[in-house]
Design brief:
CATH architecture of chain A: Roll
Oligomer: homotetramer
Structural class of chain A: alpha+beta
Mean pLDDT of chain A: 93
Largest sheet of chain A: 6 strands, antiparallel
Helix content of chain A: 10-25%
Number of domains of chain A: 1
CATH topology of chain A: Thiol Ester Dehydrase, Chain A
Low-confidence stretches of chain A: none
Distance between the termini of chain A: 22 Å
Number of strands of chain A: 6
Chain lengths: 141, 141, 141, 141
C-alpha cells in the first residue's frame, strides 16, 4: 500500500468485505481482491447439490454474487446489487473447486458494472454472469 | 390425479423434486407445487447475511432458483436452468420468512419461461426474477 | 388532474415523453400512459424482419424498451434505463400489431423496476422483459 | 476459405445472415464475421434518438442483437435468441458510429452463449450484453 498507484485496497475495507457470514458458511475463500476486481473460490460440497445431483444454481450464483460484492465494495463505499443475471453453461463436478472472477467493466458515481465468470478446475466455463450495483454514499459497514 | 384437469403433479415426481440437498440445507419449505407453479418459503437465518448485515443476494437467489426448479420440473421431465436474472428491491429482515412464487409464463417443447417474485412477510417485493429452462428428454432423476 | 388520487400524468410531461424520434420512426402508438404504467403498440413492418423472416429481436425489444421509458418517465423526473433483459417466446407474424405493457413493480428514490410483456393480437406472449431505471434529479427534457 | 482450420464461414451462409432487413434499415455494416464471432457497426442517426436526445436503448440493443444473430448463425444452422440482457453504461453521441462485438463464450449442441460489447468511437463502453440462443436443426433460411 506504499504505492498509491497500485490496486491494493485498504486493509480495514478488506477486513469488512470478507466478514460475510453466508460466504463463510459456503466455505468461500478469497484468492485475490483488488480495486474493482475479485477472484474467489468454493469447493462444491455434496450438500450444495440439487435434486439432479449437480451443483445447485443457487450455490453457483452465491459464489458469483460474492465475487460481485467483494469487487464492488473494494473502494470502501457501500455498493448494493441491483440486477444480476447468470447463464449456466455446464455443471461442475460435486467435490471440485469452482472459481469466480468479477471484473469491473464500468464505474460511474452511482453505479458499477461487473462481468463475472465461474470456471471449473480445468478452466471450463461453468457460468457467466453480470451484475450492476448501486453505490451508496455510506462507507462499507 | 383422478381429475385430469387439475394441476396436481404425480406423487413420485414431487418426491424427487423436493429431494434437493441445498434447498433442504437452507431450510426451504414447500408451500404449494402444481404443474408449472411453485410457492416455497425460507426463514432468513443469521448465517445467510452478507457483510452489510442484510440477507445475502445468493441466499435470496437460491430461494428464487429453487422455486424455478420445482415449478419447471413439475411435469416430470428434467428441466435445467439456462438463464436466470434477478433484480433486488429491498432487503428482508434477518430472522423473517421470505416466500418465492414461480409462475410459468411460457412453455415450448424444449424451453420454459418462469416469472418469479420473492416477497416479505408483509407482502413487499424483495426481489423479482425470471428464468428460462431447457427441457431435456430424460425424466426427473 | 382534478382528482389527486388518479393516475393521470401531467399533459406537458406526456407530450415530452412521446416526442421520441425512434419510437415515432417505428410507428409506435400510445394506447395508454398513466403513472408508472404504459401500454403501447407497433405494427411489425416487413422492414423490421430479420434474416429468418420473423420480427427482428431488436424491433420487439425497441417496443418493450419504449414502454419502459414511457412508464418510468411518467412522474416527470428523467429516468434512464440501466439494465433490461428480454426473453423471446414466439415470433409475431410480420404485418401484425404487437402490444407492450410496462407495469411498475417497485419504486425507490433512485431506482424503478418495471415488468414488461409483449403480446400478439390474439393475446399470446411474444416476449417477457424486465427493466431497471435510474431516476435522475433532472426533469424530463 | 482454402484453409479448413480457419474461422471463415461459408460464403452462402454469410450471404443469408446479412440479408437482414432491419439491420439494413438501421444501416448496420459488417466489419468482420467468423465462426462464433461478429463485429458490426452502426452510425447513430438523429431518428434513432429517444425523448432525451440520446440514442434510444432500442437502437443500441438492435445493434447488439444483430451482432448476436450474425455470430450465432455463422455455423449455418439456424439459431434463435432465447434470452438477451443489456446494461447501458453511457450514451454515445448522436451522429457517431458505435461498434458491437459478439464473442462466443460457450457452445453446446442445442445452445450458444455470446458476450457482446458496444463501444464508442473512442473505445468507451456504451453497453454490455449477453445472449443465449437456441440452435435449431434447420439450416439458415
Amino acid at each position: 500500500m506504499t504505492d498509491p498507484n497500485n490496486n491494493a485496497i485498504a486493509a480495514d475495507v478488506l477486513e469488512r468485505i470478507i466478514a460475510d457470514p453466508f460466504a463463510q458458511h459456503l466455505g468461500i475463500e478469497v484468492v485475490e481482491i483488488s480495486l474493482g476486481r475479485a477472484v474467489i473460490r468454493m469447493k462444491v460440497q455434496p450438500w450444495m447439490a440439487n435434486a439432479m445431483g449437480t451443483p445447485h444454481g443457487g450455490a453457483i450464483f452465491a459464489l458469483a454474487d460474492s465475487a460481485l460484492a467483494f469487487a464492488s465494495n473494494s473502494y470502501g463505499s457501500k455498493a448494493v446489487a441491483l440486477d444480476v443475471n447468470i447463464t449456466y453453461c455446464r455443471p461442475a463436478p460435486i467435490g471440485s473447486t469452482v472459481t469466480a472472477t468479477a471484473e469491473q467493466a464500468n464505474l460511474t458515481r452511482r453505479t458499477g458494472l461487473y462481468l463475472i465468470s465461474v470456471t471449473s478446475e480445468d478452466g471450463k466455463l461453468i457460468a457467466s454472469a453480470r451484475g450492476t450495483v448501486f453505490r451508496t454514499e455510506s462507507t462499507v459497514r
